[in-house]
Design a protein that fits this description.
about 280 residues; single chain; 12 helices
């Protein structure tokens, strides 16, 4: 079971990478991404409806760890799509107030889910048998998404966990957008450079995004005071490329890689090691 789910999750991430790099707008990307996740969840549902868990531990693994990886993406893309569709297109102050209002609503949701949120954040497992098995789980609330109607494929707390995780990602996205509005100088500084270098990035955009986040995380620019937006703008300018919504690519593709999250950095290290080895010879 776990192998099937992990393989499907890897295929989904590849599809989301492709969508991120081929979509022209964020609205288009979120719609296409939502559809891709929904299709993967449907495959998962069909598999589980014909599968018998080996034991209770395997059932808990599915509803606590495996399924929420998909469901949180479904909720996240659905929320981002509607945020982008509803976002005011007027003055800066109105947009900042709108972002703050959305962030406050997310905080209210966390407060309303305080007990279970603490359980999740503390990595507790003592109530897993009640929260993440279908026999013990009660349906005191109505399902929020169509795929959740089938009780064979859902526990209420599996849905709640995925929603908490999705709202964590959504909160980070909103804070990032708000910060960009409050600090426009970080994105404007490059406009004063006169001559674009004659260099073009020829690896994937995902690789460049991984590099940019690594540079910013290391604090290698402006004594660690440069934010991700400034670093990414510098790389885009230097290498004559537009990365698109690098924040979403980092959150939804790079950060959630299973075995090795720094794939491009490993390629760089291997290439440099080989070059030095060849020189030694």
């Amino acid at each position: 079971m776990e192998e099937f789910v992990n393989n499907e999750h890897a295929l989904l991430n590849e599809r989301l990478d492709e969508i991120a790099l081929t979509s022209e707008t964020l609205l288009q990307r979120t719609e296409r991404s939502y559809t891709a996740v929904q299709q993967s969840l449907q495959k998962l549902k069909e598999f589980i409806n014909h599968y018998t868990f080996y034991d209770q531990d395997e059932e808990i693994l599915f509803f606590k760890k495996l399924k929420p990886q998909f469901l949180k993406k479904l909720i996240y893309y659905w929320k981002i799509f509607h945020l982008e569709a509803e976002k005011p297109q007027r003055d800066k102050e109105e947009l900042m107030a709108w972002y703050k209002q959305k962030i406050e609503r997310i905080n209210q949701f966390f407060q309303a889910s305080h007990s279970f949120y603490i359980y999740y954040r503390l990595l507790r497992s003592d109530k897993d048998e009640h929260y993440f098995t279908r026999e013990a789980d009660g349906y005191e609330i109505l399902p929020e998404y169509s795929l959740e109607i089938d009780k064979q494929f859902c526990t209420v707390h599996s849905l709640r966990l995925a929603k908490l995780q999705a709202y964590e990602m959504l909160n980070e996205y909103l804070l990032s957008e708000l910060y960009a509005l409050q600090n426009p100088s970080h994105s404007a500084g490059l406009q004063y450079l006169n001559n674009r270098p004659d260099t073009t990035w020829t690896d994937s955009k995902v690789d460049l995004i991984e590099l940019g986040y690594s540079i910013q995380s290391r604090g290698s620019v402006n004594h660690g005071k440069a934010d991700v937006k400034l670093v990414m703008n510098a790389l885009e300018y230097a290498f004559n490329i537009t990365t698109g919504n690098y924040y979403a690519v980092f959150q939804q593709n790079i950060r959630i890689r299973k075995k090795n999250r720094a794939v491009y950095l490993d390629k760089l290290r291997d290439a440099l090691d080989k070059r030095m080895d060849d020189t030694d010879e």
